[in-house]
Amino acid sequence: MSTTLTAQQLQDNRRGLMLVLSAPSGAGKSTIASRLLAEDDQVELSVSATTRARRSTEEDGVHYHFREKTQFEQMIQAGELLEWAQVHDNYYGTPRKNVEARLEEGKDVLFDIDVKGTFQLYAKMRSDVVSVFILPPSIAEMYERLKKRAEDSDEVIKRRMQTAIEEMRVWQDFDYIIVNEDLERAYAQLNAILVAERQKRARFADRIAPQMQGMIDDLTALIS
């Protein structure tokens, strides 16, 4: 019987990827991320673990994995977190087991984390990470976007701009750069990156080796 390998079989045997979107405040990252999650059923948002108190509108395992401080610290010691940070009095982090399960299922996991978290992911699973740094077309435009939100005081905006300095200094450590001058174009560029990354040979590794060998055997038999 002739061996077949369809495009669907290829996708069904693909290992998922970890898509990291980073950006200074005002670059439009949240808008792009929300649209991607709504339109691409292969992408799931990474659910973080945290020690902060659960709000009445939040569900464990959906919004966060809520953990006690001692539990979280045990997870750190056991190497069960891909990345973590302490913000004020609370811990936040990404459980490794959950992400690994999704990647094995062929799902892509979206991370909305800061650059420090990105570097922790690099250290743990660099070959699975696809990092995209989203930029505004100018600092003046970024500032205007923050002002138009009317959500933050001038002092908060100043702090966000200060944080942006440190974030933008590491732009060369990201795989891709997108300038969000036009939302439609920026979103199309992100989709193009995903299409290409999903077809990388490394995503299939040994999963399609039997089919490939079968096709080689079929070819050999045909010309013998």
What strand order characterises the main sheet?
A: 2-7-1-8-9
Shape: globular
The low-confidence runs, each spanning 5 or more residues with pLDDT under 50, are none
Estimated share of beta-strand residues? 15-25%
Average pLDDT taken over every residue: 92
N-to-C CA distance: 16 Å
Rg value: 21 Å
- Major beta-sheet overview: 5 strands, parallel
The count of helical stretches stands at 9
CATH topology: Rossmann fold
Using the 3D structure, state the CATH architecture: 3-Layer(aba) Sandwich
CATH superfamily: P-loop containing nucleotide triphosphate hydrolases
- Quick one: how many beta strands? 9
Query: Helices and strands: which structural class?
Result: alpha/beta
Entry summary:
This protein is of the alpha/beta class.
Strand-helix topology:
Elements: H1 7-12, E1 18-22, H2 29-39, E2 43-45, E3 49-50, E4 65-66, H3 69-77, E5 81-87, E6 90-95, H4 96-104, E7 108-111, H5 115-125, E8 129-135, H6 139-149, H7 154-168, E9 176-179, H8 183-198, H9 209-223
Parallel strand pairs: 1-7, 1-8, 2-7, 3-4, 8-9
Antiparallel strand pairs: 3-6, 5-6
Descriptive account of the structure:
With 224 residues, the protein is an alpha/beta fold. The protein contains 9 helices and 9 strands. It has one domain: P-loop containing nucleotide triphosphate hydrolases (Rossmann fold). A hairpin with a 2-residue loop joins strand 5 and strand 6. The protein starts with 6 loop residues before the first helix and ends with a helix.
